[in-house]
Amino acid sequence: MHNRNEMNRHREDELDPEDAWKANPNPWARWDEAHDAFRKSSFVKGQGEAGHSPPVVKRSKHSFRNQFLWKLAIASLLFAGIWAMFRQDSEWAMQGRAIVTQALEDEIDFAAAAAWYKDHFAGAPSFIPIFRNDPGPAVGADGTVKLPVVAPLANGVLVRTFAELLDGVELAGASEAEVVAVETGRVLVLSEQANGGSTVVVQHANGRVTVYGKLAQTEVQENDWVEAGDPIGRLPKADGAEPSLLYFAVKQNDKYIDPAGVIPLD
């Protein structure tokens, strides 16, 4: 009976959490009122219990050590089991080794991880570059921008190589096919050839220049800004089944180089 009365008295002394919050809805406001940084006054005070401090929950000094020892024991058992598995030639050991080896050699399926993240968190983690769906230009490790590079003539066929011409190549394309800029740059020169064709010279970044010759018509003017894939002209109209030809050259730092080494020629 005596124990029951003590229990009832203890329950009456305990303050309901909701009542405690209503009594002091902003407990952090009393933080600066403490006289000692390690002995704070009660931040949640009950009605009529202004000087009463909440009970202190004592934690075991050895809890961290016990958890560490348990984890160490489990890790040691796992290591010992795997080591023993690779030291034996029994059937179960062979199967276990195959599972461990496969788990270590298989690559992570980032596409599946991105799909799972999108299903559970409403969107792929765009802060990870491999999941980023950004069509913009890539940036190299040195901070330089890697602009796209395209072929000057779609479905063009290489008919004369750089080894033959020594200053460019010759591509065969369909009659009046469209010729496009291979990289972003500025139209430097627009000139007429003696045979009636036109030549367009485009200045690009990093000291690179591209030359487009034997054009029947042009669609740019000097100082025009073009990006990769923008039309700059058309091939002449072919006679019968004969293809039209495009002269294409690349100069790097005022020196002709093989276009096939830097441009994706079809």
Distance between the termini: 98 Å
Shape: elongated
Number of domains: 4
Q: Assign a percent range to the helix content.
A: 25-40%
Name of the CATH superfamily of the largest domain: Glucose Permease (Domain IIA)
Number of helices: 6
Average of pLDDT? 76
Count of strand segments: 13
CATH architectural arrangement of the largest domain: Distorted Sandwich
Main structural class: alpha+beta
The H-and-E topology, N to C, reads as HHHHHEEEHEEEEEEEEEE
Beta-strand level of the residues, as a percent range? 15-25%
Oligomer type:
single chain
From the 3D structure, determine the CATH topology of the largest domain: Glucose Permease (Domain IIA)
As a whole number of angstroms, the C-alpha radius of gyration is: 38 Å
What about the largest sheet?
8 strands, antiparallel
Enumerate the spans where pLDDT stays under 50 for 5 or more consecutive residues.
34-51
CATH domain class name of the largest domain = Mainly Beta
Can you give a write-up of this model?
- This protein is elongated.
- The chain has 4 domains: 2-26, no CATH class; 65-104; 108-136, no CATH class; 146-261, Distorted Sandwich (Glucose Permease (Domain IIA)), CATH 2.70.70.10.
- Strand 6 and strand 7 (198-204) form a beta hairpin.
- The protein has 266 residues and is α+β, with helices and mostly antiparallel strands.
- Strands 3, 4, 6, 7, 8, 10, 12 and 13 form an 8-stranded antiparallel β-sheet that branches. A 3-stranded antiparallel β-sheet has the order 5-11-9, with no helix packed on it.
- Helix content is 28%, strand content 22%.
- The chain has 6 helices and 13 strands.
- This is M23 family metallopeptidase.
- Residues 1-13 have a biased composition (Basic and acidic residues).
- Residues 167-259 form the M23ase beta-sheet core domain.
